[in-house]
Write a sequence for this structure.
């Protein structure tokens, strides 16, 4: 299946987009080419207005529209200046490498842009949502709002969008919490609608690899496993279980392991599946490090962590 295809995008999904496209087309048709300009220059200026977010790789027309819709706000806010490349296309989101505005003090920024209508595909198994406060696009709890609750129950378009935004909000809030706690997670920089901006790992030509696709030095393996287990503990101490931790969601950059991808993270104290998900996270990590001769009693590790957590000792 080609998840990178944007053909499935439906522009009617994004409020305001349809009107804007029509408005832009009307405005463009009113402008005439000045007599003294080169036709090609004039055309280029029409296609890429000064106000338009530069996208400097071959994104298809519908991907480009959606990128502009998701990221123009960060361009206008002088956080990013250009979308340089698509790092990876996933089922639910694509991640892009963007050039950072000099005022941010960074060179590059990663933009995770969720696909519209991800509620169809997102790991929205009820198990992850149990015990979680639904958040609106400003990070506020929405379950007290009767109109919103009704829309969700009736599965109206508005209700579905609310659920989608709630996942993205949850990912952003989780990253903020863990980053503030000192975890090796990308620093969240900004968030709006279906996009999250965060610190980028890699360089302009080559994004960081995920741990599953690198051969680490066997001497690195033991300290890296311990560090990742320290993360599992840190998350638990903050009432959080990643829920999809595996070498696929760990970036490897300059000898460091960075944990990513948090929309499905669960609230440990409230979610009845937290213990099982914690064990699965530990097992998947241990499975990867076993190839470097690291043997761990993962059941004992899980038991010990959970016991400390439940006793308030973390
Ligand atoms: N901050 C980042 N810096 C560089 N690459 C990233 C960053 N975040 C994600 N990626 C890349 O994008 C991919 C998808 O991101 P992820 O958050 O795991 O979303 P998905 O839900 O699609 O798995 C990752 O596997 C990684 O290759
Ligand atoms: Mg992932």
């Amino acid at each position: 299946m080609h998840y990178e295809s944007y053909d499935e995008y439906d522009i009617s999904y994004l409020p305001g987009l349809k009107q804007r496209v029509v408005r832009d087309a009307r405005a463009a048709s009113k402008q005439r080419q000045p007599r003294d300009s080169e036709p090609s220059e004039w055309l280029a200026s029409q296609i890429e207005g000064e106000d338009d977010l530069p996208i400097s790789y071959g994104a298809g027309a519908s991907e480009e529209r959606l990128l502009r819709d998701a990221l123009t706000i960060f361009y206008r806010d002088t956080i990013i200046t250009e979308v340089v490349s698509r790092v990876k296309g996933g089922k639910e989101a694509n991640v892009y490498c963007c050039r950072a505005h000099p005022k941010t003090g960074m060179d590059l920024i990663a933009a995770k842009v969720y696909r519209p209508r991800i509620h169809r595909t997102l790991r929205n198994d009820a198990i992850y949502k149990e015990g979680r406060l639904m958040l609106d696009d400003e990070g506020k709890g929405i379950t007290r709002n009767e109109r919103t609750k009704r829309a969700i129950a009736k599965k109206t378009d508005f209700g579905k969008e609310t659920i989608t935004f709630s996942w993205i909000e949850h990912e952003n809030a989780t990253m903020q919490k863990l980053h503030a706690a000192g975890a090796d997670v990308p620093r969240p920089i900004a968030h709006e609608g279906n996009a999250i901006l965060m610190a980028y790992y890699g360089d302009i030509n080559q994004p960081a690899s995920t741990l599953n696709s690198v051969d680490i030095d066997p001497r690195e393996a033991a300290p890296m496993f311990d560090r990742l287990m320290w993360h599992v503990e840190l998350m638990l101490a903050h009432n959080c279980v990643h829920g999809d931790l595996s070498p696929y969601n760990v970036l490897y950059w300059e000898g460091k392991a960075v944990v990513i991808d948090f929309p499905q993270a669960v609230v440990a104290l409230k979610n009845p599946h937290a213990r099982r998900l914690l064990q699965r996270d530990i097992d998947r990590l241990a499975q990867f490090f076993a190839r470097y001769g690291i043997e761990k009693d993962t059941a004992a590790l899980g038991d010990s962590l959970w016991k400390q957590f439940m006793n308030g000792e973390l």
Remarks:
- Confidence is low (pLDDT under 50) at residues 1-33.
- The chain has nine helices and ten strands.
- The chain has two domains: 11-21+50-199, 209-310.
- The radius of gyration is 22 Å.
